[in-house]
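Subject: Sanity check before I submit

Could someone independently write out the structure tokens for this chain? I want to compare against mine line by line before I put it in a report. The sequence has 490 residues.
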Amino acid sequence: MFEALETGKFLDKDSYDEREQVLRDQLLQYQFELAQQQVPVIVVMAGVDGAGKGSVVHQLNTWMDPRGIETNALWMHSDEEESRPHYWRYWRALPRRGEIGIFLGSWYSRLLRVALEDKPDRARQAHRLTQINDFERLLTADGYLIVKFWLHVTRETQRLQLSEEAPIQQQNPRVGADAKAWWKAYPAVLKYAQKALLETDTGNAPWHLVEAEDRRYRDIAVGELLLDAMATRSERRDSPPSPPVPTNISRGQPTVLDTVDTQARLGKKEYREQLADYQNRLQDLAWKAHRQQRSFVAVFEGWDAAGKGSAIRRVTGAIDPRLYHLVQYAAPTDEERDHHYLWRFWRNLQRNGRATLFDRSWYGRVLVERVEGFASHEQWQRAYNEINQFEEQLVEHDIVLCKFWLHISPEEQLARFKEREATPHKQYKITEEDWRNREKWRDYELAVEDMVAHTSTADAPWTLVAGNDKYYARIQILSTLCERLEAALD
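---
Independent answer below. Compare away.
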């Protein structure tokens, strides 16, 4: 594979200067066009150490407007990054729509670091390749343009670049104590790189292999390949409209919510006794999780007026405020709309040992956005798989994930709506939108049915909470949290 990148390609100075001027003008043109079209661009710069990745990135910033480019050097991982799921560091660095994000050190880096290990885990490597393809497919489906480059040099050139023998203008400023180790691992790096390139060379995010022995040829080749990708995307015709939402054959049939016993009740005295017991247990478990550096995530979804707020207060009332972060979501902000819909949830995940409580969550994609038409049929349909991938990564990081749907009957919701209207200090809780949503009860019920069917997995099951009686609902949530944490921590 790599022998095709060792043929001696080069450019003389005159040819370089001639092509550079044309390239610079066109790169700027398409950078501005994609910015106007709100297309986010991701450039992955990969290759063996000493291939000149940093120099190429510097050149791209020189040719284009650096105000629309963010360069992310992710080869050094901080404690903050290591204490969260691996892809957190990449999600938080994704460019906004209309901007360019260059990644030096990317989701491919740890695939190559196994070359320094004595006995790499093949199953883990295969799983990581699958995750990469899933991640890139998720982004390109959302409109991202991903352009990936592999820069290749021979082993001798790498040795020279990683030593003090290289000409001053070509020396690698990052040469450190591990340079010798990387040179020794060169054959192994190419072995793992070949598999990674072949497995992740997809139609939506193809690889561009560049011979990097000659600096001038390398820079022009990368620039022209990037230009071609940007021009093709800019001139691409709009995709055909999504197919209409098919009539749900389950309409009129029982749903999973019909299995919830909404008549379940708990007496006030029994409630107070159990509340104190479970809150004490949860308090101890939260500190135990902190000592063991285990995080937990709790997701609260449910009908309007189902009691999410009061249930969350009973949970936070049991946990030291230093150990949790509560996030409440409504309509996305302009900044959030400029990213993939999962971006705003990834960025709020807490470090190891702390809890993240989500009042509304990523499930809005398959609930509100589906029913109200804010997401196309194609968008919310593929969201099930995207959500499962997201939650799988949380669980892989040893996060304890609990998901609650608070269910009440239509009659109970109506009673609570009327109570809110009649109670001065609760009137702010009821809006015209709440009344309008009642008219779409069946549509939301079917959306919940699909949500549970597609995303209630062995590692991230849904808990359907009987919410007509608030006492019962609160205890069901607290007891579930305690049981899940006790099972995970013990």
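---
OP: Matches mine. For the report I'm noting this point. The longest strand covers residues 145-152.
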